[in-house]
């Protein structure tokens, strides 16, 4: 294992010289190295080549011991070629989006969104967020449906759940500002598999902006009055309505329209309308093709700004005045418990504080610090200024690392710790049981971090191009339970939101999380004076009860609680059971392993 270092920029020079020994000590596999180089270049543009690249690295790593000298086993020629690939990738633009859900909201400049079968927002564009208040992961406010279209909307939602035969509709949507209703088209978009479908809602109207007025006036020499007449005509599509809006006669409006048509060379009012639509669309073209940036699905995010420039963001679930329980996510696509669990938390008097660790969401990342130091600084600021009292803290996967590090130094901050899911510090042997992509990247980040930065940048490019489904396919296809969870359209809003939360500031957060996961703080387990419950999902692909229970022999305060019918996405698969566990610990009630194993959701 390697120490936790923050820098990703390591030299790509050959591993030679007095400190490494002669070049002959390097493990050189000409054919394998050529495969890695070839697949790396192809993976920049070919989504399938990424898998071949990982397979080649797996074959390479199988021949290299996982020790402090592992990095010396990579030839300088290989590293030099991969450094060139990294430079090539840095100079490329992101290709067109092919994710069908993202494309559905990017092809129009007006408000657009996609709903899950139960009515949560899966994805929205910037206009959908600003005009209709759509927020990924939350339900669409029913007030945004014009009463005249409510029945048609309900029929579409029933059709999404295969309880009606309608496949499309025209809806009227009510903007947040109380303005005129917006005409929108709605249709069903079926996923690759499953009985339910998504509902796409897209505006049929184009907003007229100040830029459109400027373009029209400058391009055709229209007066300010003529531009205003054109703007109103574009909205109301009727000469009499224009006259009423301007408080002038029909003759005056007709005369002005004739002047406008002459200047624009539009032979008819129909052609003039097409010209105005083109102008309006061109004016907001810079907003077309943009999905909305990550936002807290609960709409409760708060950001603490510290004097040193650090921003610490968090949101919460449950009882606003309840006992604090801190939740730190990890690399798995789980940001927080589904909002449906709020009633259970509120009834138990618990306020679940979901902390965005450095680089996630809107929390700042500080590259001058190592990932562990950065996380500890954010955690301490959060505990000092927001929590302000001893609490229970939960870490998902590697999210438990900063909690363990802080508990070893300041145990009085915590009543108890909970780890949900696997991370290396709990059982180092589990790294060999990780899914191939995770295993290769976890080992390489301990050898040559900039190589993993290259791979993460390639993966981020593929996610931007093909959508989060590209990542899901590679992360979970060998884990049936997690894969089926990802295929549930009603969980798509949460999984996509968690992915956006991770990548909100770019791929570097992912790389630093891998470095964090390899932090050498294993000794804190032996000296930990705070109770730790490790909830270990039995179907995450890493679970090995005999191996996991060795940690209990290292410290009597550590207890392993296997969790049946759960994988890496346990927060979505066993939500009620996990909330029960949180409540039990908060109430000081011991939780037996058999209770965790046999209680159904």
TrEMBL record:
Superkingdom per UniProt: Bacteria
SUPFAM superfamilies tied to this protein: alpha/beta-Hydrolases, C-terminal effector domain of the bipartite response regulators
Stored InterPro entries: AB_hydrolase_1, AB_hydrolase_fold, Sig_transdc_resp-reg_C-effctor, Tscrpt_reg_LuxR_C, WH-like_DNA-bd_sf
HTH luxR-type domain mapped to chain residues: 219-276
UniProt-listed GO biological process terms: regulation of DNA-templated transcription
Pfam families in the record: Abhydrolase_1 (PF00561)
Positions of the UniProt region annotated as Disordered: 1-27
One of the record's GO molecular function terms: DNA binding
Protein name in the entry: LuxR family transcriptional regulator
Native species: Hoeflea olei
